[in-house]
Amino acid sequence: MNLPNPETLLAEITAKIKTQLEFNGLTNTALVGIHSGGVWLMNHILKNIKLDVPYGMLDAAMYRDDYAKRGLKTEPKPSNIAFDVTNKHIILIDDIFYTGRTTRAAMNELFDYGRPASITLAVLINRGGAELPIAPNIVGAEILLKPHENLQLSQDNKGKLQLSLENKTLETNNG
Amino acid sequence: MVNPQLDAEGNLKHLLTIEGLPKRILNQILDTAETFVGVAERDIKKVPLLRGKTVCNIFFENSTRTRTTFEIAAKRLSADVINLNVNTSSQSKGETILDTVDNLIAMHADMFVVRHAQSGAAHFIARHVPDNISVINAGDGRHAHPTQGLLDVFTVRKYKPDLHNLRVALVGDVLHSRVARSEIHALTTLGVPEVRVIAPKTLLPADVEKLGVQVFHDMKAGLKDVDVIMMLRLQNERMSGALLPSAQEYFRTFGLTQEKLSYAKSDAIVMHPGPMNRGVEIDSSVADGSQSVILPQVTYGIAVRMAVMAILGGGSIGGGNAGGAV
Protein backbone atom coordinates (compact mmCIF):
# COMPACT_ATOMS: atom_id res chain seq x y z
CA MET A 1 0.00 0.00 0.00
CA ASN A 2 1.19 3.49 -0.81
CA LEU A 3 1.18 5.59 2.33
CA PRO A 4 0.56 9.33 2.00
CA ASN A 5 3.31 11.80 2.79
CA PRO A 6 2.76 12.85 6.43
CA GLU A 7 4.16 16.32 5.73
CA THR A 8 1.40 16.91 3.13
CA LEU A 9 -1.27 15.71 5.56
CA LEU A 10 0.23 17.91 8.28
CA ALA A 11 -0.03 20.95 6.01
CA GLU A 12 -3.70 20.12 5.36
CA ILE A 13 -4.72 19.76 8.99
CA THR A 14 -2.62 22.82 9.92
CA ALA A 15 -4.66 24.93 7.50
CA LYS A 16 -7.94 23.57 8.89
CA ILE A 17 -6.81 24.11 12.49
CA LYS A 18 -5.81 27.66 11.66
CA THR A 19 -9.28 28.33 10.25
CA GLN A 20 -10.84 26.82 13.37
CA LEU A 21 -8.57 28.97 15.60
CA GLU A 22 -9.54 32.14 13.79
CA PHE A 23 -13.22 31.18 13.98
CA ASN A 24 -13.11 30.48 17.75
CA GLY A 25 -10.86 33.42 18.57
CA LEU A 26 -7.23 33.09 19.65
CA THR A 27 -7.75 33.88 23.32
CA ASN A 28 -10.57 31.35 23.64
CA THR A 29 -8.83 28.44 21.96
CA ALA A 30 -6.06 26.07 23.02
CA LEU A 31 -4.21 23.22 21.36
CA VAL A 32 -3.64 19.98 23.27
CA GLY A 33 -1.42 17.24 21.87
CA ILE A 34 -1.69 13.61 22.97
CA HIS A 35 1.73 12.00 23.64
CA SER A 36 3.74 11.16 21.62
CA GLY A 37 2.58 11.63 18.01
CA GLY A 38 0.01 14.29 18.83
CA VAL A 39 2.62 16.39 20.62
CA TRP A 40 5.03 16.17 17.65
CA LEU A 41 2.23 17.30 15.33
CA MET A 42 1.19 20.09 17.68
CA ASN A 43 4.75 21.44 17.83
CA HIS A 44 4.94 21.51 14.00
CA ILE A 45 1.53 23.19 13.84
CA LEU A 46 2.51 25.85 16.41
CA LYS A 47 5.67 26.59 14.46
CA ASN A 48 3.83 26.86 11.16
CA ILE A 49 0.81 28.94 12.13
CA LYS A 50 2.95 31.51 13.98
CA LEU A 51 0.09 32.43 16.30
CA ASP A 52 0.32 32.91 20.03
CA VAL A 53 -2.15 30.35 21.31
CA PRO A 54 -2.10 28.44 24.63
CA TYR A 55 -1.17 24.78 24.33
CA GLY A 56 -0.63 21.71 26.48
CA MET A 57 0.15 18.01 26.48
CA LEU A 58 -1.68 14.94 27.70
CA ASP A 59 -0.58 11.40 28.40
CA ALA A 60 -3.90 9.68 28.72
CA ALA A 61 -2.31 6.49 30.13
CA MET A 62 -3.82 7.07 33.56
CA TYR A 63 -7.31 7.23 32.11
CA ARG A 64 -7.18 4.29 29.75
CA ASP A 65 -9.64 1.45 30.19
CA ASP A 66 -6.96 -1.24 29.81
CA TYR A 67 -4.75 -0.20 32.75
CA ALA A 68 -5.75 -3.33 34.67
CA LYS A 69 -4.34 -5.41 31.81
CA ARG A 70 -1.39 -3.35 30.64
CA GLY A 71 -0.31 -1.39 33.71
CA LEU A 72 1.54 1.88 33.31
CA LYS A 73 3.96 2.27 30.45
CA THR A 74 7.59 2.15 31.48
CA GLU A 75 8.22 5.64 30.15
CA PRO A 76 5.33 7.81 31.28
CA LYS A 77 5.24 11.34 29.94
CA PRO A 78 3.87 14.12 32.14
CA SER A 79 0.64 15.79 31.22
CA ASN A 80 1.07 19.54 31.19
CA ILE A 81 -1.96 21.77 30.91
CA ALA A 82 -0.72 25.15 32.12
CA PHE A 83 -3.79 27.18 31.08
CA ASP A 84 -7.32 27.30 32.48
CA VAL A 85 -9.35 24.72 30.56
CA THR A 86 -12.70 26.09 31.68
CA ASN A 87 -14.59 27.82 28.81
CA LYS A 88 -11.78 27.18 26.31
CA HIS A 89 -12.35 25.70 22.88
CA ILE A 90 -9.89 22.82 22.90
CA ILE A 91 -8.43 21.38 19.72
CA LEU A 92 -7.22 17.91 20.65
CA ILE A 93 -4.48 16.59 18.36
CA ASP A 94 -3.55 12.93 17.83
CA ASP A 95 -1.68 11.14 15.08
CA ILE A 96 -3.76 8.08 14.22
CA PHE A 97 -7.45 7.69 15.08
CA TYR A 98 -8.46 4.06 15.59
CA THR A 99 -10.76 2.74 18.33
CA GLY A 100 -11.50 6.09 19.96
CA ARG A 101 -10.44 4.80 23.37
CA THR A 102 -7.42 7.12 23.62
CA THR A 103 -9.69 10.06 22.74
CA ARG A 104 -12.17 8.99 25.42
CA ALA A 105 -9.35 8.77 27.99
CA ALA A 106 -7.93 12.16 26.93
CA MET A 107 -11.35 13.81 27.19
CA ASN A 108 -11.86 12.38 30.69
CA GLU A 109 -8.48 13.74 31.72
CA LEU A 110 -9.26 17.18 30.21
CA PHE A 111 -12.47 17.38 32.22
CA ASP A 112 -10.46 16.89 35.42
CA TYR A 113 -8.75 20.19 34.61
CA GLY A 114 -11.98 22.08 34.05
CA ARG A 115 -15.05 22.40 31.82
CA PRO A 116 -14.05 23.23 28.26
CA ALA A 117 -16.43 25.18 26.01
CA SER A 118 -15.90 22.59 23.27
CA ILE A 119 -13.49 19.88 22.16
CA THR A 120 -12.55 19.36 18.51
CA LEU A 121 -10.49 16.33 17.49
CA ALA A 122 -7.84 16.75 14.80
CA VAL A 123 -5.91 13.70 13.53
CA LEU A 124 -3.43 13.04 10.76
CA ILE A 125 -5.12 9.80 9.71
CA ASN A 126 -8.42 8.09 10.52
CA ARG A 127 -7.73 4.39 9.97
CA GLY A 128 -11.32 3.28 10.73
CA GLY A 129 -12.38 0.85 13.45
CA ALA A 130 -13.99 3.15 16.03
CA GLU A 131 -15.40 1.23 18.97
CA LEU A 132 -17.07 4.25 20.57
CA PRO A 133 -19.38 6.96 19.24
CA ILE A 134 -16.40 9.28 18.70
CA ALA A 135 -15.14 10.60 15.36
CA PRO A 136 -12.44 13.11 14.44
CA ASN A 137 -13.57 16.54 13.17
CA ILE A 138 -10.40 17.45 11.29
CA VAL A 139 -8.78 14.63 9.30
CA GLY A 140 -5.71 14.60 7.04
CA ALA A 141 -6.62 11.32 5.32
CA GLU A 142 -8.92 8.33 5.73
CA ILE A 143 -7.27 4.96 5.19
CA LEU A 144 -9.26 1.86 6.06
CA LEU A 145 -7.00 -0.73 7.66
CA LYS A 146 -7.50 -4.27 8.93
CA PRO A 147 -7.15 -4.96 12.66
CA HIS A 148 -3.83 -6.80 12.19
CA GLU A 149 -2.32 -3.82 10.37
CA ASN A 150 -0.39 -1.41 12.58
CA LEU A 151 0.05 2.12 11.27
CA GLN A 152 2.56 4.22 13.16
CA LEU A 153 3.89 7.75 12.99
CA SER A 154 7.51 8.34 13.93
CA GLN A 155 9.73 11.40 14.05
CA ASP A 156 13.49 11.47 13.63
CA ASN A 157 15.79 13.78 15.57
CA LYS A 158 15.59 16.41 12.83
CA GLY A 159 11.81 16.58 13.25
CA LYS A 160 11.02 14.71 10.00
CA LEU A 161 7.78 12.73 10.19
CA GLN A 162 7.36 9.25 8.75
CA LEU A 163 4.50 6.77 8.47
CA SER A 164 5.06 3.02 8.57
CA LEU A 165 2.71 0.07 8.18
CA GLU A 166 3.38 -3.32 9.75
CA ASN A 167 1.52 -6.56 10.25
CA LYS A 168 1.01 -7.40 13.88
CA THR A 169 1.16 -10.95 15.12
CA LEU A 170 -0.34 -10.18 18.52
CA GLU A 171 -3.50 -8.14 18.96
CA THR A 172 -2.51 -5.24 21.18
CA ASN A 173 -5.08 -2.69 20.09
CA ASN A 174 -3.51 0.46 21.41
CA GLY A 175 -5.22 3.00 19.18
CA MET B 1 18.99 -15.08 45.05
CA VAL B 2 15.39 -14.33 44.24
CA ASN B 3 14.41 -10.75 45.01
CA PRO B 4 10.99 -10.98 46.68
CA GLN B 5 10.19 -7.47 45.46
CA LEU B 6 10.27 -8.40 41.77
CA ASP B 7 8.07 -10.78 39.77
CA ALA B 8 9.32 -13.33 37.25
CA GLU B 9 9.50 -10.64 34.51
CA GLY B 10 11.52 -8.30 36.73
CA ASN B 11 8.63 -5.90 37.43
CA LEU B 12 8.02 -4.41 40.84
CA LYS B 13 5.72 -6.68 42.87
CA HIS B 14 6.20 -5.37 46.41
CA LEU B 15 8.16 -2.36 47.69
CA LEU B 16 9.95 -3.52 50.83
CA THR B 17 13.39 -1.93 50.72
CA ILE B 18 15.50 0.06 48.28
CA GLU B 19 18.47 -2.21 48.97
CA GLY B 20 18.89 -4.52 45.99
CA LEU B 21 16.39 -2.75 43.73
CA PRO B 22 17.85 -2.16 40.27
CA LYS B 23 18.43 1.40 39.05
CA ARG B 24 15.88 0.73 36.28
CA ILE B 25 13.10 0.29 38.85
CA LEU B 26 14.14 3.36 40.88
CA ASN B 27 14.10 5.48 37.73
CA GLN B 28 10.74 4.04 36.69
CA ILE B 29 9.26 5.11 40.04
CA LEU B 30 10.83 8.58 39.92
CA ASP B 31 9.80 9.18 36.29
CA THR B 32 6.25 8.03 37.02
CA ALA B 33 6.12 10.31 40.06
CA GLU B 34 6.97 13.18 37.73
CA THR B 35 3.66 12.59 35.93
CA PHE B 36 1.75 12.71 39.23
CA VAL B 37 3.17 16.02 40.48
CA GLY B 38 0.77 17.95 38.25
CA VAL B 39 -2.32 16.05 39.40
CA ALA B 40 -2.39 17.98 42.69
CA GLU B 41 -2.55 21.29 40.83
CA ARG B 42 -5.74 20.53 38.97
CA ASP B 43 -9.37 21.27 39.72
CA ILE B 44 -9.99 17.57 40.27
CA LYS B 45 -7.02 16.09 42.09
CA LYS B 46 -7.76 12.53 41.12
CA VAL B 47 -6.90 10.03 38.43
CA PRO B 48 -8.96 6.85 38.02
CA LEU B 49 -6.11 4.29 38.06
CA LEU B 50 -7.05 2.42 41.24
CA ARG B 51 -10.80 2.88 40.99
CA GLY B 52 -12.52 -0.03 42.69
CA LYS B 53 -9.35 -1.20 44.44
CA THR B 54 -8.96 -1.28 48.21
CA VAL B 55 -5.77 -0.13 49.88
CA CYS B 56 -5.30 -1.09 53.54
CA ASN B 57 -2.99 0.97 55.70
CA ILE B 58 -1.98 -1.43 58.47
CA PHE B 59 -0.06 0.56 61.06
CA PHE B 60 1.30 -1.55 63.91
CA GLU B 61 3.31 1.54 64.88
CA ASN B 62 1.69 4.96 65.01
CA SER B 63 2.56 7.55 62.42
CA THR B 64 -0.10 10.06 61.55
CA ARG B 65 2.01 11.84 58.96
CA THR B 66 3.09 8.80 56.95
CA ARG B 67 -0.35 7.25 57.13
CA THR B 68 -1.96 10.48 55.95
CA THR B 69 0.35 10.83 52.96
CA PHE B 70 -0.32 7.23 51.90
CA GLU B 71 -4.03 7.82 52.38
CA ILE B 72 -4.02 10.97 50.25
CA ALA B 73 -1.93 9.24 47.59
CA ALA B 74 -4.30 6.27 47.41
CA LYS B 75 -7.36 8.52 47.32
CA ARG B 76 -5.90 10.63 44.51
CA LEU B 77 -5.61 7.36 42.58
CA SER B 78 -9.34 6.79 43.30
CA ALA B 79 -8.75 3.79 45.58
CA ASP B 80 -10.85 3.05 48.64
CA VAL B 81 -8.72 3.33 51.76
CA ILE B 82 -9.04 1.54 55.05
CA ASN B 83 -6.86 2.59 57.99
CA LEU B 84 -6.05 0.14 60.73
CA ASN B 85 -4.07 1.08 63.78
CA VAL B 86 -3.19 -2.25 65.29
CA ASN B 87 -2.01 -2.58 68.85
CA THR B 88 1.28 -4.44 69.04
CA SER B 89 1.09 -5.31 72.72
CA SER B 90 -0.13 -8.83 72.07
CA GLN B 91 2.23 -11.54 73.25
CA SER B 92 1.99 -13.69 70.15
CA LYS B 93 2.97 -11.06 67.59
CA GLY B 94 3.58 -13.39 64.67
CA GLU B 95 0.14 -14.93 64.91
CA THR B 96 -1.52 -11.59 65.42
CA ILE B 97 0.03 -10.11 62.30
CA LEU B 98 -0.97 -12.99 60.08
CA ASP B 99 -4.44 -13.18 61.58
CA THR B 100 -4.92 -9.49 60.87
CA VAL B 101 -3.63 -9.89 57.35
CA ASP B 102 -5.74 -12.99 56.68
CA ASN B 103 -8.85 -11.11 57.72
CA LEU B 104 -8.07 -8.28 55.33
CA ILE B 105 -7.37 -10.73 52.52
CA ALA B 106 -10.77 -12.28 53.21
CA MET B 107 -12.26 -8.81 52.77
CA HIS B 108 -10.65 -8.63 49.29
CA ALA B 109 -8.04 -5.98 49.97
CA ASP B 110 -5.77 -5.34 46.97
CA MET B 111 -2.77 -3.62 48.52
CA PHE B 112 -1.25 -3.39 51.99
CA VAL B 113 0.74 -0.46 53.32
CA VAL B 114 2.51 -1.79 56.40
CA ARG B 115 4.29 -0.02 59.23
CA HIS B 116 5.78 -1.98 62.10
CA ALA B 117 8.30 -1.37 64.87
CA GLN B 118 10.09 -4.61 64.04
CA SER B 119 12.49 -4.93 61.12
CA GLY B 120 11.33 -7.40 58.52
CA ALA B 121 7.60 -7.17 59.25
CA ALA B 122 6.69 -6.09 55.72
CA HIS B 123 8.81 -8.90 54.20
CA PHE B 124 7.04 -11.34 56.48
CA ILE B 125 3.63 -10.19 55.25
CA ALA B 126 4.75 -10.07 51.61
CA ARG B 127 5.79 -13.73 51.82
CA HIS B 128 2.39 -14.62 53.22
CA VAL B 129 -0.04 -12.84 50.89
CA PRO B 130 -1.45 -14.37 47.68
CA ASP B 131 -0.07 -13.35 44.28
CA ASN B 132 -2.63 -10.67 43.51
CA ILE B 133 -1.79 -8.56 46.57
CA SER B 134 1.09 -6.09 46.77
CA VAL B 135 2.78 -4.95 49.97
CA ILE B 136 4.43 -1.56 50.54
CA ASN B 137 6.75 -1.10 53.49
CA ALA B 138 5.95 2.18 55.25
CA GLY B 139 8.72 1.73 57.78
CA ASP B 140 9.92 -1.36 59.64
CA GLY B 141 12.02 -0.94 62.78
CA ARG B 142 15.49 0.36 62.03
CA HIS B 143 15.53 -1.42 58.69
CA ALA B 144 13.94 0.55 55.86
CA HIS B 145 11.49 3.24 54.84
CA PRO B 146 11.69 2.98 51.06
CA THR B 147 9.09 5.56 50.03
CA GLN B 148 10.79 8.17 52.23
CA GLY B 149 14.14 7.35 50.60
CA LEU B 150 12.53 7.61 47.16
CA LEU B 151 10.81 10.92 47.85
CA ASP B 152 14.09 12.30 49.16
CA VAL B 153 16.00 11.39 45.99
CA PHE B 154 13.05 12.66 43.95
CA THR B 155 13.40 16.01 45.74
CA VAL B 156 17.17 16.01 45.21
CA ARG B 157 16.66 15.29 41.50
CA LYS B 158 14.13 18.14 41.22
CA TYR B 159 16.59 20.71 42.59
CA LYS B 160 19.89 19.14 41.49
CA PRO B 161 19.14 17.11 38.33
CA ASP B 162 22.75 16.06 37.69
CA LEU B 163 23.00 13.29 40.30
CA HIS B 164 26.39 12.18 38.97
CA ASN B 165 28.02 15.39 40.19
CA LEU B 166 26.66 15.68 43.71
CA ARG B 167 28.04 15.66 47.19
CA VAL B 168 25.34 14.72 49.71
CA ALA B 169 25.64 14.76 53.51
CA LEU B 170 23.33 12.98 55.95
CA VAL B 171 23.51 14.52 59.38
CA GLY B 172 22.43 13.05 62.72
CA ASP B 173 21.04 9.86 64.17
CA VAL B 174 22.02 7.33 61.51
CA LEU B 175 22.01 4.49 64.03
CA HIS B 176 18.27 4.50 64.67
CA SER B 177 17.24 5.80 61.27
CA ARG B 178 15.62 3.54 58.69
CA VAL B 179 15.25 6.68 56.58
CA ALA B 180 19.04 7.10 56.46
CA ARG B 181 19.54 3.53 55.23
CA SER B 182 16.93 3.94 52.51
CA GLU B 183 18.38 7.29 51.45
CA ILE B 184 21.92 5.91 51.25
CA HIS B 185 20.84 2.93 49.11
CA ALA B 186 18.81 5.16 46.80
CA LEU B 187 21.57 7.75 46.37
CA THR B 188 24.34 5.22 45.70
CA THR B 189 22.17 3.13 43.32
CA LEU B 190 21.34 6.24 41.29
CA GLY B 191 25.02 7.10 40.94
CA VAL B 192 25.59 9.92 43.43
CA PRO B 193 29.40 9.77 43.71
CA GLU B 194 29.88 11.11 47.23
CA VAL B 195 27.59 10.38 50.16
CA ARG B 196 28.73 11.48 53.61
CA VAL B 197 27.36 10.83 57.05
CA ILE B 198 28.04 13.27 59.86
CA ALA B 199 27.22 12.08 63.37
CA PRO B 200 28.64 11.45 66.83
CA LYS B 201 30.20 7.98 67.10
CA THR B 202 27.42 6.83 69.42
CA LEU B 203 24.78 7.44 66.74
CA LEU B 204 26.47 5.52 63.91
CA PRO B 205 26.08 1.80 63.19
CA ALA B 206 29.32 -0.14 63.62
CA ASP B 207 29.80 -0.99 59.94
CA VAL B 208 28.43 2.18 58.38
CA GLU B 209 31.34 2.51 55.90
CA LYS B 210 30.18 -0.71 54.25
CA LEU B 211 27.17 1.18 52.92
CA GLY B 212 29.58 3.15 50.73
CA VAL B 213 29.62 6.41 52.67
CA GLN B 214 32.35 8.64 54.08
CA VAL B 215 32.16 9.20 57.82
CA PHE B 216 32.66 12.55 59.55
CA HIS B 217 32.27 13.51 63.19
CA ASP B 218 32.67 17.24 62.63
CA MET B 219 30.15 19.50 60.89
CA LYS B 220 32.71 21.95 59.49
CA ALA B 221 34.71 19.25 57.70
CA GLY B 222 31.66 17.16 56.79
CA LEU B 223 29.57 19.95 55.29
CA LYS B 224 32.40 21.49 53.28
CA ASP B 225 31.29 21.97 49.66
CA VAL B 226 28.22 19.73 49.86
CA ASP B 227 25.25 20.29 47.51
CA VAL B 228 22.58 18.60 49.61
CA ILE B 229 22.17 18.37 53.38
CA MET B 230 19.76 15.71 54.61
CA MET B 231 19.03 16.20 58.28
CA LEU B 232 17.82 13.24 60.30
CA ARG B 233 15.49 13.41 63.25
CA LEU B 234 16.91 12.69 66.68
CA GLN B 235 14.88 9.59 67.50
CA ASN B 236 14.28 9.96 71.21
CA GLU B 237 11.59 7.29 71.20
CA ARG B 238 13.95 4.71 69.75
CA MET B 239 16.89 5.47 72.03
CA SER B 240 17.79 3.42 75.03
CA GLY B 241 20.58 4.37 77.40
CA ALA B 242 22.58 7.57 77.41
CA LEU B 243 23.90 7.98 73.86
CA LEU B 244 23.96 11.76 74.16
CA PRO B 245 24.83 14.12 77.01
CA SER B 246 21.90 16.46 76.30
CA ALA B 247 19.79 17.87 73.50
CA GLN B 248 21.41 21.29 74.02
CA GLU B 249 24.90 19.94 73.60
CA TYR B 250 23.81 17.96 70.52
CA PHE B 251 22.43 21.16 69.01
CA ARG B 252 25.71 23.01 69.68
CA THR B 253 27.76 20.32 67.94
CA PHE B 254 25.48 18.84 65.27
CA GLY B 255 22.46 21.14 65.04
CA LEU B 256 22.19 22.84 61.65
CA THR B 257 22.49 26.60 62.14
CA GLN B 258 23.01 29.35 59.57
CA GLU B 259 26.67 29.40 60.53
CA LYS B 260 27.18 25.68 59.92
CA LEU B 261 25.10 25.88 56.74
CA SER B 262 27.62 28.40 55.39
CA TYR B 263 30.25 25.60 55.19
CA ALA B 264 28.21 23.97 52.42
CA LYS B 265 27.93 25.30 48.87
CA SER B 266 26.02 28.58 48.73
CA ASP B 267 23.23 26.96 46.70
CA ALA B 268 23.01 23.82 48.86
CA ILE B 269 19.52 22.59 49.73
CA VAL B 270 18.44 21.53 53.21
CA MET B 271 16.11 18.55 53.69
CA HIS B 272 14.45 16.89 56.67
CA PRO B 273 12.09 13.90 56.69
CA GLY B 274 10.00 15.34 59.53
CA PRO B 275 8.76 15.70 62.13
CA MET B 276 11.43 18.25 63.04
CA ASN B 277 12.85 18.85 66.49
CA ARG B 278 13.46 22.57 66.12
CA GLY B 279 16.39 23.70 68.24
CA VAL B 280 17.72 20.13 68.52
CA GLU B 281 18.84 18.95 65.08
CA ILE B 282 17.90 22.07 63.12
CA ASP B 283 17.60 25.77 63.89
CA SER B 284 14.28 27.41 62.99
CA SER B 285 16.00 30.04 60.84
CA VAL B 286 17.41 27.24 58.65
CA ALA B 287 14.23 25.15 58.62
CA ASP B 288 12.23 28.17 57.44
CA GLY B 289 15.08 29.69 55.39
CA SER B 290 15.47 30.11 51.65
CA GLN B 291 17.61 26.97 51.23
CA SER B 292 15.08 24.72 52.94
CA VAL B 293 13.07 22.33 50.71
CA ILE B 294 11.39 20.58 53.63
CA LEU B 295 7.82 21.40 52.60
CA PRO B 296 8.36 20.54 48.91
CA GLN B 297 9.54 17.14 50.21
CA VAL B 298 6.07 16.61 51.70
CA THR B 299 4.38 17.59 48.43
CA TYR B 300 6.62 15.32 46.36
CA GLY B 301 6.04 12.53 48.88
CA ILE B 302 2.44 12.24 47.70
CA ALA B 303 3.48 12.01 44.04
CA VAL B 304 6.12 9.36 44.80
CA ARG B 305 3.67 7.25 46.83
CA MET B 306 1.10 7.56 44.03
CA ALA B 307 3.75 6.35 41.57
CA VAL B 308 4.61 3.31 43.70
CA MET B 309 0.95 2.35 44.10
CA ALA B 310 0.20 2.96 40.41
CA ILE B 311 3.10 0.75 39.32
CA LEU B 312 2.19 -2.01 41.78
CA GLY B 313 -1.51 -1.78 40.92
CA GLY B 314 -1.23 -2.02 37.14
CA GLY B 315 -1.67 -5.32 35.43
CA SER B 316 -1.56 -7.48 38.53
CA ILE B 317 -3.86 -6.75 41.41
CA GLY B 318 -7.55 -7.31 41.74
CA GLY B 319 -7.84 -10.22 39.33
CA GLY B 320 -6.23 -8.42 36.41
CA ASN B 321 -4.60 -10.31 33.59
CA ALA B 322 -1.25 -10.81 35.28
CA GLY B 323 1.39 -11.78 32.81
CA GLY B 324 -1.05 -13.36 30.39
CA ALA B 325 -1.52 -12.56 26.71
CA VAL B 326 -3.20 -9.21 26.21
Write structural notes for this entry.
The complex is a heterodimer of chains A (about 180) and B (about 325). Chain A is an alpha/beta fold and about 180 residues long. In chain A, about 30% of the residues lie in helices and about 25% in strands. Chain A has one domain (about 5-70, about 80-165): Rossmann fold, CATH 3.40.50.2020. Chain A has helices at about 5-25, 35-50, 65-70, 100-115, and strands at about 30-35, 55-60, 90-95, 120-125, 140, 150-155, 160-165. In chain A, α1 packs across α2 (about 35-50). The model of chain A has no long low-confidence stretch (mean pLDDT about 90). Chain B is α/β, with parallel strands linked by helices. A five-stranded parallel sheet of chain B has the order 7-6-5-8-9. Chain B has a four-stranded parallel sheet with strand order 2-1-3-4, with helices on both faces. In chain B, α1 (about 25-35) crosses α5, α1 (about 25-35) crosses α11 (about 295-315) and α5 (about 145-160) packs across α6 (about 180-190). Chain B is globular. The two termini of chain B are about 30 Å apart. Residues about 315-325 of chain B have low confidence and may be disordered. The interface between A and B is medium-sized, with 28 and 25 residues.
CATH superfamily of the largest domain in chain B: Aspartate/ornithine carbamoyltransferase
Mean pLDDT of chain A: 91
Helix content of chain A: 25-40%
Query: Tell me, what's the shape of chain A?
Result: globular
CATH topology of the largest domain in chain B: Rossmann fold
CATH class type of the largest domain in chain B: Alpha Beta
Largest sheet of chain A: 5 strands, parallel
SSE string of chain A, helices as H and strands as E:
HEHEHEHEEEE
What's the level 1 CATH class of chain A? Alpha Beta
H/E order of the elements of chain B?
HEHEHEHEHEHEEHEHHEHH
End-to-end Cα distance of chain B, whole Å, is 30 Å
Report how far the terminal alpha carbons of chain A are from each other: 20 Å
Strand portion of chain B: 5-15%
